[in-house]
Amino acid sequence: MSQTTESLISLLDQHQVSYQRFYHPPVFTCEEARALTPNLPGAETKNLFLRDGKGKRHFLVTLPDTASVSLKALGEHLGVKGLTFASPERLLKYLGITPGAVSFLALSNDVEIAVEVLLDSQLAQAEQILAHPLVNTETLSIATKDLLRFIQEVCGHTVQELQRDALAPA
């Protein structure tokens, strides 16, 4: 059973992950988030939920909101053929969320540890990261070190740091 936003907040509190909570109208794109939630404290992110060509491996890739990455180059880097965006059905099945709410915090719903996690190296250096708490009507600002601890220790995922500059040009 998937977490609710309130059960996720309770889990964060239980594991002493501090955050600032912001409520806002629904956002579905990085552009909408910038327009409707200006000046929140933390690095703004773009989260890609991807799958390989056979649908056997799934990836959550978190980048700075203005960054771009070639799926072909990323697939080659990961040793994956046919890397593409996963369907909303897969997003619901693996992370328990719907489009627009994708963030690291959804890994709390991946109890089978089926999703591989990649964090852009630039974001790994940020003091705070912005993340949706399973809905696109709220954003949490969380210290990066606390967020990484939560993902690794509480959710059980390994976070692979992604060096975008090492990928072949698009």
TrEMBL record:
This protein's species is: Leeia speluncae
Q: Which InterPro entries match?
A: ProX/PRXD1, YbaK/aa-tRNA-synt-asso_dom_sf, YbaK/aa-tRNA-synth-assoc-dom
Q: Which SUPFAM superfamilies is this protein grouped with?
A: YbaK/ProRS associated domain
The record's family statement is:
Belongs to the PRORSD1 family.
Q: What is this protein called?
A: Prolyl-tRNA synthetase associated domain-containing protein
| Span of domain YbaK/aminoacyl-tRNA synthetase-associated | 24-150
